[in-house]
């Protein structure tokens, strides 16, 4: 940062920031144009101190670590508070001189100059105070950010217990998910840090209040105590409002958490919701939560209106009652000096009187936020041994050479957190896995295999016993059943921050061993192809093999693999076994492999563990189990393949159809290089607007808020400003009426000439003043209320419009737009629209009106001031554009820099167990430091630029006040006019400074509307419902065929077709299998049937209706797809099965039983990990991958669609259960048209017909399996090359 090495003059004037103005003038500012943070500001250095702080008391640490800045801030503010009365004293002396008959003008000029010097000193002190207070705020905010992120890396996932009952749903929702954590960062961290920025205000306001009251006593005597009584009454009225405000704030925060969580869940699962046509239903749930949040905001606004009304009117009420007592009871004379000195004091009192309760409420809000942050920081953590975060790299583990369990029992979640009954339990476990060898873990679906690996990693709650494992030195690698991949290139995902970096020889060997060569050849950018969020660029099998490659490439000595062979065909499985598990890459490494391929792996395995219902039913060395005959039993029950088969050991992908053109695969000389100049980048850089905010953006907000409300608001502003000037003129007239010989004041106030002399009867004067005061108060009340109403309307309309637009966006939009970027719109930008924007808009308008009114009044009274005023105005205008250009770009950079932090947080929370397994917590924490450093740099430089402008405008304002005072003295105007001119000059100076500042802030805040407006222009899918083209309720019927004629599908108009001239007819009740090489268009065909990708040509006619002619919701709710990637939602089993509540309990239990999730015998019910329909589950719950697929299949069957598309819907379940599920599909869906996209030919060999897709997306052949075998074409060749050839041939010939 430039302030690290500057001269005294540069430091006093902030001229060291001026280089950035030159850059902003010639071009749009970019990241490289902005200085990086000083070492004193970098978050890594800041947070290290917190980690070493004893007891880690957060608030104590924040105060101690920022104590120097706090002290300087408080001392500076106290100086400004006390010395601020110098100008009031000077005003009193000037008016006293003018009212005196002798008129000692040199004395008046002296006091004017003293006031000028005082104002200049305030400008300088304010600049230093702003820098120190801002640094205190930025450091506190950064420390809170890092503490929240650090905790996220350590906390236990409290939402993982699927067997919890509805009694624990609330506790699950109280634990922090992504939405809540983002809210803690974007809301609560800011609220707490803001108290450090404004900490000195409490002390300064108290001091100003005390001095002003004593000063008032010296001016008005004991009559000023009437004003004190008004203040006390105001505080008494505030007390119940304060109590209610705390309750409302807490409830509002919870409502905001719920809304953000709902938004996050909606867009995390938007692709699945579009498949089912449920996106509008889920969006309505988000809108419902938003309305709940807004209802609490209405209550917050109501309290704010009452409090604002009280404290805005208090100065006027103080003046009214003090003048009333002074004139009526004390019989005093209101001279001009006394009146305007008292008014200046009352005006000076308004600040502290409004700030004190505001600060009080702000501290209460900060207290609530601090409680929420502390509650998050106190959430359960994984045990110390399960995390490498902050651990010394040389730290040895006492169990470095052991792997296993000793008398260990585990369960999901802490016992105190959920219902103890019916919770899934694993153990007791006593296992010693052999070091440097392969161990197998097997068991039926839901038996606890994945849970055993989670227990080894420390992700399960250990009820008793101990775990033997060491994660030091990146000793562990993990490949989960549901692979988690980073939003990065394929190469970066495989390397995954390995200490060895990119070792090309090892990397190529790993890629070949994991059968990824042919996959990488398919991508134009090779291994530099970017993987989207959740691995959207890759197929399920490709994701599994990239995750496996990541584990193998690592330097880990312990490799935990959760059924990686389930996602691949037998050829690839054999290849992985030969080249990965038996190859050089895994030599002397300890491998724990969860698998059903027992016969494939047993010959070279050392140890085997079999689980059932969370308990070990069989374990021992392979030799012991083979000798006792138990290995044969395990193979018969659990094995995936027929052991008698001779498997052709060729390198092929998981899709068996790919084998028809690949006899063998060799390592090319440069297999991983790009085949074209394409970068492989999927996600584009976030759009950042250039130049001024467009007029259309302002109109968007005004239309959303309502034209009438804005017109009324502007009218009230004009009325309030005029009333303010009338108030000053009336008080001048009243004061001058006590003094004989003064000339009457202009035509504007001739109506007041009819009032009796105040010495004879002051009551009429008091009544007029009361009327003006009450008129101003109620105008202010209406003005504030209208502002909150307009803000609420705009926030509601823009939120709903953006939500509706995004929900209707095509799936491709979500492939190239990170979820964190969308979340940033719904947090930061909507937060600005909810709160700050309306205030900025009103402040800009009010500053503009105040500027014009004060300027006009001064010129009317002191016309000679006009040339000088124009010169000052030119200086203001000359300075402003430099600031606005730079500030606008810096704010936009700041907004854009927040999205990567949230996107990274999203990824981290989804893959937390993987990050911890690899011991990569420090890497992710370091990445977070860098992202927040970038954001903080933009924010810090913006405030340096703001300080540069503030100092110059403060100095110019001081010159304006001094010059107008001098001109008024030189012209010899009356003391009443002089008082008004001096007061209005101060108002003019403040308004002119504020005008540019609030106008710039307004433009910056409207950047949020601009960013929301960007998403209001997102391309849209076809309409959800077309009223005139709605299909009948029975559509598609049980006797209507699916006819596809000359179907052509392109991903973009300029790209070649993925499907070209596809034509076929499928009849009701028919089972169609679709096979083909990778890239032949199988998935595209399924997506085109649902119009996820719109056809470029041809027709799709279902039961007599062209599907392109009806609404998407009507189509997608009648056609069901079950994909390999399962989406579950936070809620219960019932809400996931039947979100619309269309089925009763009996139907739900029946479908669960048919999908083998529960087993009923007689009157009893044996269940897996599901307590009942109200069992709470979450997107990352304790259901295994196989159980999740069973829930998804049950959900599809419960819909009873006539057309069902299955895409590897049972890939994660064991072979025995898979056979049972296939029978269920044939029984339950006997009358439905079933289209199955199959990578494994055994899945579809008994189907009615098989469709083979070839190169270019054309149908190569389509007929019954028997006819295709007789023909001897492509399908038979696929089967011949399959590892299941004997079984396939037997099925066809039977």
TrEMBL record:
<feature type="transmembrane region" description="Helical">
    <location>
        <begin position="222"/>
        <end position="241"/>
    </location>
</feature>
<dbReference type="GO" id="GO:0005524">
    <property type="term" value="F:ATP binding"/>
</dbReference>
<keyword id="KW-0547">Nucleotide-binding</keyword>
<keyword id="KW-0378">Hydrolase</keyword>
<feature type="transmembrane region" description="Helical">
    <location>
        <begin position="766"/>
        <end position="790"/>
    </location>
</feature>
<feature type="domain" description="ABC transporter">
    <location>
        <begin position="1042"/>
        <end position="1281"/>
    </location>
</feature>
<keyword id="KW-0472">Membrane</keyword>
<dbReference type="Pfam" id="PF00664">
    <property type="entry name" value="ABC_membrane"/>
</dbReference>
<feature type="transmembrane region" description="Helical">
    <location>
        <begin position="857"/>
        <end position="877"/>
    </location>
</feature>
<feature type="transmembrane region" description="Helical">
    <location>
        <begin position="704"/>
        <end position="723"/>
    </location>
</feature>
<keyword id="KW-0067">ATP-binding</keyword>
<keyword id="KW-0677">Repeat</keyword>
<feature type="domain" description="ABC transporter">
    <location>
        <begin position="403"/>
        <end position="638"/>
    </location>
</feature>
<keyword id="KW-0813">Transport</keyword>
<dbReference type="InterPro" id="IPR003593">
    <property type="entry name" value="AAA+_ATPase"/>
</dbReference>
<dbReference type="InterPro" id="IPR003439">
    <property type="entry name" value="ABC_transporter-like_ATP-bd"/>
</dbReference>
<feature type="domain" description="ABC transmembrane type-1">
    <location>
        <begin position="711"/>
        <end position="971"/>
    </location>
</feature>
<keyword id="KW-0812">Transmembrane</keyword>
<keyword id="KW-1133">Transmembrane helix</keyword>
<dbReference type="InterPro" id="IPR017871">
    <property type="entry name" value="ABC_transporter-like_CS"/>
</dbReference>
<feature type="transmembrane region" description="Helical">
    <location>
        <begin position="959"/>
        <end position="983"/>
    </location>
</feature>
<dbReference type="InterPro" id="IPR050173">
    <property type="entry name" value="ABC_transporter_C-like"/>
</dbReference>
<dbReference type="InterPro" id="IPR027417">
    <property type="entry name" value="P-loop_NTPase"/>
</dbReference>
<dbReference type="GO" id="GO:0140359">
    <property type="term" value="F:ABC-type transporter activity"/>
</dbReference>
<feature type="transmembrane region" description="Helical">
    <location>
        <begin position="302"/>
        <end position="329"/>
    </location>
</feature>
<dbReference type="InterPro" id="IPR011527">
    <property type="entry name" value="ABC1_TM_dom"/>
</dbReference>
<dbReference type="Pfam" id="PF00005">
    <property type="entry name" value="ABC_tran"/>
</dbReference>
<feature type="region of interest" description="Disordered">
    <location>
        <begin position="652"/>
        <end position="683"/>
    </location>
</feature>
<dbReference type="GO" id="GO:0016887">
    <property type="term" value="F:ATP hydrolysis activity"/>
</dbReference>
<feature type="domain" description="ABC transmembrane type-1">
    <location>
        <begin position="80"/>
        <end position="365"/>
    </location>
</feature>
<dbReference type="GO" id="GO:0016020">
    <property type="term" value="C:membrane"/>
</dbReference>
<protein>
    <submittedName>
        <fullName>p-loop containing nucleoside triphosphate hydrolase protein</fullName>
    </submittedName>
</protein>
<dbReference type="InterPro" id="IPR036640">
    <property type="entry name" value="ABC1_TM_sf"/>
</dbReference>
